[in-house]
Structure formats: structure tokens, C-alpha cells
Specification:
The protein is 39% helix and 13% strand. It contains 17 helices and 14 strands.
């Protein structure tokens, strides 16, 4: 297990952070010869390759995460199973690069505990992972690490100001197979700017992509849950047609299939009554985990009763959902009225869900089937939870 104080997220899959801030932060980490872990996309790693973080970072009290909002980072790490990890998040959305580096630099930059890089490479934790180690000149380190991150690879950088060279460990991305052939022949090579392009191309060939959707790689867009706000009401589970949500054995709401979420669709976050759902790549607060700007605390939340759209036994669903709406629909018993309500609901949904997502929704029959399955899952989860509470 390697012990680092700095975790840097390059957010390579989304252009939501100022590129100038990211570039300056990364270049300074390299120039100051810090030892740090740099992941191409923290969301992707937390969803698909949690072991990269858990095997490289010890539970200490001063981890510095250079990424996005504190809340988003907290619940991402919780999702990855690092529930007790204490850290401070430095937000590249809103902070200047020089301020981040100044704060990260406070105190010593602790190296690997009592171990040199070559000793770490012989350690069993490293040998059990598909990783490649390379040597880079310190003056070329920033450009090489940036290229690797831009290409989707995760890295661990060992700063070494004395020899003029630094050791860099390269891990496959969250989209790649966990095993690779002929990795050993690449390890411990010296890579420079002149052969970097060929080296990256060969890495991509070796670590063949294993996750594809719609002809391309999975985009790490998925919800995480703020359990300080979540009431376990199961509305998101009932709302989602794609099986993203589920429950654990104790009836607690979980994100169980992150890769089934539709890219750039934050609809479930908008209908969550507790504002407990976070999409870190969303551009604005509170959905991205950021604080609501001062003076806008009472941001209007658009809510849609998805049962109007899903069909089925509309009136029974409404009665169970909320007694307050019972009167409103008590006289609506004919199909024509119900159809009007669904059309109205669809109109509201276009404000919540991107058109490209709405256009890919399944047929009415399939939607009704999925909605019934989701409602049943939510109902069963609530029943199980009540049993456990007795």
C-alpha cells in the first residue's frame, strides 16, 4: 500500500473546469517534485476501478484532493467504499491555481512511508495490479503525465529532485480490462517526449477497451447520494427507467448500476425532494454538489409526478404517492383527461430531461413495464426497511 497526501483529478472526460487552472496545478505538482496520485477522472475511477485508490492511499487525516466541490468528492469516495477517509478538497472550479498549490504545499510533502519507488514496485500489492512503471526526466514530467491523463490513464508520480528522473506508475483506465498481455516488457523503460506518442499508442493497444456503449466508451456520468440529506423515500428509484438505483440488504437506497445512467441527464436530481442527488459533472449548484449561491437559497425546484407519464393504474398510484394531490385528481376518471395530464407531464419533462435523452426512451409498453418494476422495487425496499426497524 502506498501512502500519498495528494490526489489530483484531471477530469479528462468533461470540460467543466478551467483548463488553465488544471494545467497550472498539474505543472506545479510536477515541478515541485511532489509525490502524488493523478487520476484521469475521479468519477470513473470511483465507479469502475475503486481498487486503484484504495490500494494507493492510506486512511490518514490530511489527504488533499484537488478536484471539485467538497460534497461531491466526499460522496464519490463514500461510493467507492472509502467512507472514513478524512480529506480536504481543493476546488478547481472556483480557486486559483496558485492558491491551491500554496495550501497543498503547507507542511512537508511526505514520501512513501520508509520505502523508495523501486522497493514499492516489488511489493505484492503492486504486483497484483496491471500497472506499468516508467522513468521520465523531471523537466519533461509534466508534459508526459498530462498526455497520459488526457489519454485516460491513471498515474502515480514519485517525485525525485536528486536524480533528475522521476518514476511514474501507469494504471489502466476505468474502461480497460484489468489484465493485459506483455505488460512486463514495457516496465522500467525511460520515456521521453520524442517517443511519447508511440508509447501511448502501444499502451492503448495493450489495454484493450472493454466497456462500450453506442459505439463508444462509457462516459462517467452517474448520480451519487448525499446520505446526510437522503430520506430513503425511493422517489428516484421509482422515477428512473434505467435501473440505476437499487437497495442493499438493509433497504438503504444505493446507486447499483452507474453505467446505465444516461449522459448529461440530471432529471432524478431535480425531482429529489431532499436535494440529495449529486452529479459532479453538472455545471451548476446544487446538483454538482456545490453550495447554492448567496441570495438564491430558495431556488425553485421543478418537480414532476412521473406516474402521470408512466401510465398504469394512474389514480391508485396518485393516492399512494401523496394525499395532498388526491382531491386534485378525484374527479378525473376518463382516459381523455388522463391523456391530457400525461401530455402536460411530458411538457414539464422536457424542462428536466435533455431532448436527446427523451428521444431514446423506450416504447410506451416498455416504459410502463419498467415503471411497474421500479415501483415494485421501491415498495419492496420500503417494506423491508420497516421490517428491519421493528
Amino acid at each position: 500500500m502506498f501512502d500519498f497526501r495528494i490526489l489530483y483529478c484531471h477530469c479528462a472526460n468533461a470540460k467543466i473546469m478551467p483548463e488553465s487552472v488544471k494545467d497550472k496545478v498539474l505543472s506545479q505538482l510536477c515541478e515541485k517534485n511532489f509525490s502524488f496520485m493523478a487520476v484521469a477522472d475521479l468519477c470513473g475511477v470511483c465507479a469502475k476501478a475503486q481498487q486503484i485508490i484504495s490500494s494507493n492511499i492510506l486512511n490518514h487525516n490530511d489527504l488533499k484532493v484537488i478536484s471539485c466541490h467538497q460534497n461531491a468528492v466526499r460522496w464519490l469516495l463514500d461510493f467507492a467504499g472509502l467512507k472514513d477517509l478524512k480529506f480536504t478538497a481543493f476546488n478547481m472550479h472556483s480557486s486559483k491555481a496558485e492558491d491551491i498549490i500554496s495550501q497543498v504545499s503547507n507542511g512537508e510533502n511526505r514520501k512513501i512511508q520508509n520505502e523508495e519507488p523501486h522497493n514499492v514496485l516489488n511489493n505484492s500489492a503492486f504486483q497484483n495490479q496491471s500497472s506499468i512503471s516508467i522513468n521520465v526526466k523531471n523537466e519533461e514530467k509534466y508534459k508526459i503525465v498530462k498526455r497520459l491523463l488526457d489519454s485516460g490513464f491513471n498515474t502515480v508520480v514519485f517525485g525525485d529532485a536528486n536524480s533528475g528522473f522521476s518514476k511514474v506508475l501507469i494504471y489502466p483506465t476505468s474502461f480497460h480490462r484489468n489484465t493485459a498481455k506483455n505488460v512486463g516488457s514495457f516496465s522500467d523503460k525511460t520515456v521521453d517526449i520524442n517517443n511519447l506518442g508511440n508509447f501511448v499508442s502501444e499502451l492503448e493497444r495493450i489495454f484493450n477497451s472493454d466497456i462500450e456503449i453506442s459505439g463508444g466508451q462509457w462516459y462517467p456520468w452517474f448520480p451519487i447520494i448525499n446520505y446526510d440529506k437522503c430520506t430513503n423515500c425511493m422517489q428516484c428509484l421509482s422515477f428512473c427507467l434505467f435501473g440505476v438505483y437499487g437497495c442493499d440488504e438493509e433497504g438503504k437506497l444505493r446507486v447499483v448500476e452507474p453505467d446505465k445512467c444516461k449522459p448529461n441527464c440530471p432529471a432524478c436530481a431535480r425531482v429529489c425532494p431532499g436535494m440529495a442527488i449529486i452529479f459532479p459533472k453538472y455545471p451548476s449548484a446544487p446538483i454538482n454538489g456545490g453550495e447554492i449561491p448567496e441570495g438564491q437559497e430558495k431556488i425553485k425546484k421543478e418537480k414532476v409526478d412521473i406516474s402521470l407519464l408512466m401510465g398504469g393504474n394512474l389514480y391508485e398510484t396518485l393516492k399512494k404517492r401523496n394525499r395532498q394531490v388526491k382531491e386534485r385528481f378525484s374527479s378525473e376518471r376518463n382516459p381523455e383527461t388522463a391523456l391530457k395530464e400525461r401530455c402536460k407531464c411530458l411538457g414539464e419533462l422536457t424542462k428536466l430531461i435533455p431532448p436527446e435523452i427523451l428521444s431514446t426512451l423506450p416504447s410506451k409498453q416498455e416504459m410502463e413495464k419498467r415503471a411497474a418494476e421500479a415501483a415494485e422495487k421501491a415498495s419492496q425496499a420500503l417494506k423491508n426497511k420497516k421490517k428491519l426497524e421493528k
